[in-house]
Amino acid sequence: MIRIAPLRAAAGLGFLTALLCLASPAARAQTATTPAGTVASPPISAPINSSDSLLTLVPFRPIAEIRQEIEELTARRNLFEVEEQNGKLMQERAKTEIRLKESQIQTIKANLDLAKKEKNELVAAEWESKKKLAELEKNLLERREAVRGKEIAYSKASREFSDVSIECRNLELALAGKRDERASIAGRALSAEVVAALQRVDHDLDDLQKRTLDGQIKAAESRKNVASKEVELAKNRKQVLEAQIKLMRGN
C-alpha cells in the first residue's frame, strides 16, 4: 500500500481547506489548527458540487417561473401550428387562382390572335391590353403564393423553436428539482450514507446541467433559423407590394 508522507499529506489537506474556505464561509468552521501549527483532520463534510457551488453554469431559477414559461411556450407552439395549417390552405387557394388566371390568359391570347387574323386593330388593341393586365395579375398571384410558402416556413420554424425551447425548459425543471433534492439531503445530519447520497445527486446535477446547456445551444440555433425565415418572409412581402403597385399603375 502506498503511504503519503505526513508533511505532504498535511500540505495537501491545507490546500483543500483553503479552497473550501474560498468556496463557502461555512467551510471555515470545518477545519482547525492545533497549537503546534499542524492541521487537524476535518470532520465528515458534505461534498461540494463544483457546478452548483463554485461555478454555476445554469442559473438558479424558481420552479414556478420555469413552469410558467413552459405553459406560455406551449400556447405559442399551438398557435404557430394553427398558422402553419392555415398557411397551407391559403397556399393551395393561391395555386388554384393562378391556374384559373393562366386559363384566362390562354383565352385572351386566342381572342387576340383571332383579332389579328381579322386585321381588326381596335379589337386587337383591346385584347392586348387585357392580356397585359391579366399577366400582371398572374404575376401578383404568383408572388402572393410565394409569400404563403414563406409564411408556412416561418410558422414551421417558429413551432420547431417552441418545441426545442419547451424541451430545454423541461430539462431545466428537472435540474431545479434535483437541486431541491440536494438541498434536502444536505440538511440532514452528516453521515457516510448522506455523503454517498450527495455524491450521487451531484453526479446527476452535472449531467442535467450539461443536457440543459446542450438544449440551450440547440434552442439558440433554432432561433437563428427563425430569424432567417423572417428575413425571407419580409423580402417576399416587399416583392408583393412592388407587384401590387405595378398592377395599380397598369390600371
CATH domain class of the largest domain: Mainly Alpha
Secondary structure: helix percent: over 70%
Summed up, the domain count is 2
Q: What structural class should be given to the helix and strand makeup?
A: mainly alpha
| End-to-end CA span | 98 Å
The helix tally amounts to 5
Runs in which pLDDT lies below 50 for 5 or more consecutive residues are 1-53
Q: What characteristic shape results from the CA principal axes?
A: rod-shaped
Largest sheet: number of strands, sense, barrel closure = none
Number of strands: 0
Order of helices and strands: HHHHH
CATH topology of the largest domain: Substrate Binding Domain Of Dnak, Chain:A, Domain 2
Beta strand %: under 5%
What is the alpha-carbon Rg in Å? 35 Å
Give the overall pLDDT as a whole number: 82
**What's the CATH architecture of the largest domain?**
Up-down Bundle
Describe the fold and architecture.
With 251 residues, the protein is an all-alpha fold. It has two domains: 1-29; 56-250, Up-down Bundle (Substrate Binding Domain Of Dnak, Chain:A, Domain 2), CATH 1.20.1270. The chain is built from five helices and no strands. The chain has helices at 6-23, 50-54, 63-117, 121-186, 192-250. The longest helix is centred in the middle third of the chain and has 66 residues, at 121-186. It starts with 5 loop residues before the first helix and ends with a helix. Residues 1-53 have low confidence and may be disordered.
